[in-house]
């Protein structure tokens, strides 16, 4: 009975600890191993980000549904965002990176494509929404099934930095031009900002992939611009409503 419980405990603990760190902490009782602390912190952050990603764009989706409008949200920006997410998801899946280092992108992809479809539907472009969804699912299959060579995925991943930045800048320009952030969800943007910032650390620890690290760094900087705009235009919107 005790051995069974110990086995279950070890299997559960290995979701967070590497085998080496598990032995360090629970067998040798060495709690001052720097590399193990960093690795464990990275794993915990990664799992936390994955759990957070289950809900990160739900506020945005609910805001769209509640207002039945996609006003202020650039479908081009959403598509760039979806492309960046899908490229990294496919690259990481094929490279067999630890799920804790990229699992959030699978949930982000689902939620982002829902946002795109809703924006199109509320623009009375139902057929475009259907074509958009079908095309996206087909692209996912091609990129993740092994059909696409890994060198092509790597090239696409290197292109992710400009894709991420351009996508965010398009949305930032739309906000500036409109003088407000429209249906952009503040909760979603703050979660994306903090999530991408945490991913810089987890990517360094779990993948060591320079391109991935630079991509998340660029994404964090770009997200910070949108967060700034939300805060800046927040008072503008309040004043307009007060008037």
TrEMBL record:
It comes from the Eukaryota. Its main location: membrane. GO terms for cellular component: membrane. The chain crosses the membrane at residues 70-93, 105-122, 129-147, 182-201, 213-234. InterPro entries: MannP-dilichol_defect-1, PQ-loop_rpt. The keyword rRNA processing does not apply. GO terms for biological process: oligosaccharide biosynthetic process. Keywords: Membrane, Repeat, Transmembrane, Transmembrane helix, Transport. It is a multi-pass membrane protein. It is found in: Membrane. The keyword Iron does not apply. Pfam families: PQ-loop. Belongs to the MPDU1 (TC 2.A.43.3) family. This is Mannose-P-dolichol utilization defect 1 protein homolog. It comes from Exocentrus adspersus. The lineage of its organism: Eukaryota, Metazoa, Ecdysozoa, Arthropoda, Hexapoda.
């Amino acid at each position: 009975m005790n051995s069974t419980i110990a086995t279950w405990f070890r299997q559960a603990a290995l979701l967070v600890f590497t085998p080496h760190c598990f032995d360090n902490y629970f067998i040798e009782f060495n709690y001052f191993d720097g590399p193990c602390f960093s690795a464990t912190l990275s794993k915990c952050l990664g799992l936390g980000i994955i759990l957070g990603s289950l809900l990160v764009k739900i506020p945005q989706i609910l805001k769209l549904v509640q207002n039945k409008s996609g006003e202020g949200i650039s479908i081009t920006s959403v598509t760039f965002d979806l492309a960046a997410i899908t490229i990294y998801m496919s690259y990481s899946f094929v490279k067999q990176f630890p799920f804790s280092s990229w699992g959030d992108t699978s949930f982000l992809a689902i939620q982002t494509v829902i946002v795109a479809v809703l924006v199109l539907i509320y623009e009375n472009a139902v057929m475009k929404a259907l074509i958009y969804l079908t095309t996206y699912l087909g692209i996912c299959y091609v990129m993740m099934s092994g059909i696409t060579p890994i060198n092509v995925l790597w090239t696409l991943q290197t292109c992710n930095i400009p894709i991420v930045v351009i996508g965010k800048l398009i949305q930032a320009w739309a906000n500036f031009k409109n003088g407000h952030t429209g249906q952009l969800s503040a909760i979603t943007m703050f979660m994306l900002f903090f999530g991408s910032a945490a991913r810089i650390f987890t990517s360094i620890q779990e993948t060591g992939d320079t391109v991935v690290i630079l991509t998340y760094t660029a994404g964090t900087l770009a997200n910070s611009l949108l967060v700034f705009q939300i805060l800046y235009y927040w008072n503008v919107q309040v004043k307009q409503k007060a008037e």
